[in-house]
């Protein structure tokens, strides 16, 4: 048993009136001891559920991110030091109700010259949804066998990469069984949304569900000096904009008194109002995504334009949302997004 970890556990595991928040350094130490399995299984499980009940603070998340940066894989800055890499933070336990659009969005952005980095692992509790890596495999991009240097090279050559945590950050995967055993998402799930495995300039895009997460995330990133971010209250906590209703977004804005501003994107204003695409099966999803890459005018194609238009605007490729939508359509119909997928596949061989 670790007596040091026991003291940290006692702080977060107190009752309603005795619980205490950890300092940034204490949170970093606790995360380090869990990742390195220096705490006992009983201590780790107790900490994860107690921390969830207490609710993590932005300061604590900053400390946890400090340890992820120290122990996890980190890609080096691109040769062009002015390049900003857009890092998407998505729930690791995947999607189970709505079809993910993010694979098209990521390919589209990289085809437009915006470097993109994603990360994730295999099927994970508590949702056990379709993980991103499985979708990429179905699209002909298998990131599970690449070494970290190969991922670095892929990012440099194509402007696109995926960090596969079981291979590139196995320490983090050592905590996955605890999620299944406690039956709830621990604060590690929020930590993963904010993690950036890239050392250069970043634009961190985070999907979330509960409003308190957005404020917590802003504090965590600000503590770590990250000032370029986009938080999306998207489908199932993802970065995908909704077709069925207004999507609320918190976007960093240096000229704003608070350093950010809220956007409310209503699909009705751009003639995109429709039902969100249901996730029926992985096979059907892959077929739908391939149709989008072919430029076919399907319902998912509309979702791809809605999302692509926003991110092209937000990433500075286009001056406004309407132009972004037009550019997204041109890239998809013109075959440039599909060509980008094929180029990535060629560079992985």
From TrEMBL:
<feature type="domain" description="Glycosyl transferase family 3">
    <location>
        <begin position="104"/>
        <end position="336"/>
    </location>
</feature>
<keyword id="KW-0808">Transferase</keyword>
<dbReference type="GO" id="GO:0004048">
    <property type="term" value="F:anthranilate phosphoribosyltransferase activity"/>
</dbReference>
<dbReference type="InterPro" id="IPR035902">
    <property type="entry name" value="Nuc_phospho_transferase"/>
</dbReference>
<dbReference type="InterPro" id="IPR000312">
    <property type="entry name" value="Glycosyl_Trfase_fam3"/>
</dbReference>
<dbReference type="InterPro" id="IPR017459">
    <property type="entry name" value="Glycosyl_Trfase_fam3_N_dom"/>
</dbReference>
<keyword id="KW-0057">Aromatic amino acid biosynthesis</keyword>
<protein>
    <submittedName>
        <fullName>Anthranilate phosphoribosyltransferase family protein</fullName>
    </submittedName>
</protein>
<keyword id="KW-0328">Glycosyltransferase</keyword>
<dbReference type="Pfam" id="PF02885">
    <property type="entry name" value="Glycos_trans_3N"/>
</dbReference>
<feature type="domain" description="Glycosyl transferase family 3 N-terminal">
    <location>
        <begin position="7"/>
        <end position="67"/>
    </location>
</feature>
<dbReference type="GO" id="GO:0005829">
    <property type="term" value="C:cytosol"/>
</dbReference>
<dbReference type="InterPro" id="IPR036320">
    <property type="entry name" value="Glycosyl_Trfase_fam3_N_dom_sf"/>
</dbReference>
<keyword id="KW-0028">Amino-acid biosynthesis</keyword>
<dbReference type="GO" id="GO:0000162">
    <property type="term" value="P:L-tryptophan biosynthetic process"/>
</dbReference>
<dbReference type="Pfam" id="PF00591">
    <property type="entry name" value="Glycos_transf_3"/>
</dbReference>
<dbReference type="InterPro" id="IPR005940">
    <property type="entry name" value="Anthranilate_Pribosyl_Tfrase"/>
</dbReference>
């Amino acid at each position: 048993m670790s007596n040091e970890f026991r003291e940290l556990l006692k702080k977060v595991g107190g009752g309603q009136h005795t619980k205490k928040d950890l300092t940034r350094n204490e949170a970093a130490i606790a995360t380090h001891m869990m990742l390195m399995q220096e705490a006992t299984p009983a201590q780790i499980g107790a900490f994860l559920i107690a921390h969830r009940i207490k609710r993590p603070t932005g300061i604590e998340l900053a400390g946890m991110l400090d340890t992820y940066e120290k122990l996890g894989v980190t890609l080096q800055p691109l040769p062009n030091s002015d390049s900003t890499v857009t890092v998407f933070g998505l729930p690791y336990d995947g999607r189970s109700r709505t079809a993910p659009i993010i694979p098209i969005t990521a390919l589209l952005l990289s085809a437009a010259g915006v470097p993109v980095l994603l990360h994730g692992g295999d099927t994970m509790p508590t949702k056990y949804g379709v993980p991103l890596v499985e979708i990429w495999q179905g699209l002909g991009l298998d990131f599970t066998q690449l070494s970290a240097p190969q991922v670095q090279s892929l990012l440099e050559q194509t402007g696109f990469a995926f960090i596969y945590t079981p291979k590139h950050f196995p320490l983090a995967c050592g905590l996955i069984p605890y999620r299944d055993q406690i039956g709830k998402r621990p604060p590690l799930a929020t930590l993963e949304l904010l993690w950036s495995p890239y050392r250069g300039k970043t634009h961190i895009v985070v999907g979330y569900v509960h409003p308190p997460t957005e404020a917590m995330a802003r504090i965590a990133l600000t503590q770590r000096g990250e000032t370029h971010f986009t938080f999306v209250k998207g489908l199932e906590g993802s970065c995908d904009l909704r077709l069925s209703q207004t999507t609320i977004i918190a976007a960093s804005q240096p000229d704003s008194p608070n350093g950010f501003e809220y956007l409310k994107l209503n699909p009705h204003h751009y003639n995109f109002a429709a039902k969100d695409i249901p996730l029926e099966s992985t096979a059907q999803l892959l077929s739908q995504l391939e149709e989008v890459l072919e430029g076919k005018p399907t319902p998912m194609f509309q979702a791809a334009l809605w999302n692509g238009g926003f991110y092209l605007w937000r990433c500075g490729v286009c001056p406004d949302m309407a132009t972004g939508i037009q550019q997204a359509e041109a890239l998809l119909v013109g075959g440039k997004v599909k060509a980008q997928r094929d180029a990535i596949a060629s560079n992985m061989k």
